[in-house]
Amino acid sequence: MRQVEAQVTARWGEGRMHPTRERITALLDLLGDPQRSYRSIHITGTNGKTTTARMVDDLLRGFGLRTGRFTSPHLAEITERIVVDGAPISARTFVEAYREIAAYLELVDGQFDLKLSFFEVMVAMAYSIFADTPVDVAVVEVGLGGEWDATNIIDGEIAIVTPIDLDHTNLLGTDVATIAVEKAGIIKAGAVAILAAQPVDAAGVLLRRSVEVGASVAREGLEFGVVERRVAVGGQVMTLQGLASVYPDVFLPLHGAHQAQNAACALAAVEAFFGTGAENGPLDSEVVRAAFASVRSPGRLEPVRSAPTILVDSAHNPHGMAATVAALAEAFDFRRLIAVVAMLADKDVRGMLEKLEPAVDEIVVTQNSSPRAMSPDELAREAVAVFGAERVAVEPHLGDAVETAVRLAEESPDGLITGAGVLVTGSVVTAGDARELLGAT
Hints:
Layout (H helix, E strand, L loop, with lengths): L1 H8 L12 H9 L8 E6 L4 H14 L4 E4 L11 E3 L2 E2 L2 H19 L8 H15 L4 E5 L16 E4 L7 H4 L3 H8 L8 E4 L4 H14 L2 E4 L5 E8 L2 E7 L4 E7 L4 H18 L10 H9 L8 E4 L3 E4 L5 H14 L4 E6 L7 H8 L5 E4 L10 H12 L4 E3 L3 H13 L9 E6 L2 H10 L4
């Protein structure tokens, strides 16, 4: 397994975008276009894609369908990216899938100046595994953008666009309208576009694209949405307005308004997939409730330890960090909260720190395992500019950073340690490293 994984990851990385689908098209053509053997739901946006994919997957399986799910990046194991019937593929399946396409990779590599990327190979493996299983429907998250993403070789009959904000601006554009043009590329002719509430400029782009290709549109706040929600132990209880009906008393074991929004999008997408409406009626409410109650999204404001509470979160841009901070304020009542932060150097580090600053008492900066990680010293300089030197500590290693944060969380002028918490955040890689360090399963 590790030898094959090394061969795949040695290819050029997924943090880059080359605006062509020629290589992936050529590869899948040689493989017999496996992506055409099942129905598909495609998901793009800036934040919430992976969690929404998990929700859609759980709903579809609740109604008896065999599913394939492709998401990225992974938290711990590369096999997490390719999921069949709710479970990551085995190491054996991963190795066999790679060996079955290896000869075709060499053929395609020889046809182009730029060889197939790591991400393109993963997409081809996922689509082939889904065809071989076989699955009834694939739930696919884009890797980067939309139009030129390798996943966009599928014709998703449902296209979900979660909220669009600024991220990967060096590749996708420096304003939401430009970014929306790239993401709108997954909306295909005759599809149903499920649009989360968007900035005005992004909404206009998405609606124009839908009209141009003849796609139907369902918009959060108009055709579907969150009617009501309240904090509950371990999550929240929602009333969701779907396309066909209102679904009350839906428990979701995730925190934050953004997760309720993801749930509304997932529900509308599954309703559209099944064609619910006046003729066919709504989805079975009990199945919907059971599916949402089973949703898990590791690394999304996830409690991994108690006394003190340690939360792990994957926020990796200002929009995501703002959602995390809002969810923290709503769902937790910490007397003292210390953040452990490690970020990638190509992200909006200052923007994320500014969103985080009001929510925490002190920050411990460190470094994650990514080759793109910002050094602790450089991150400390950014943190001091936002928090002030007296609120910033530096630990080169994540394990030491967590230990320091726990100590700081438990320090109090009155000697009390109740209500202390630690938040580990800043990157999906940071979340994955922390989960492994703390033994989360």
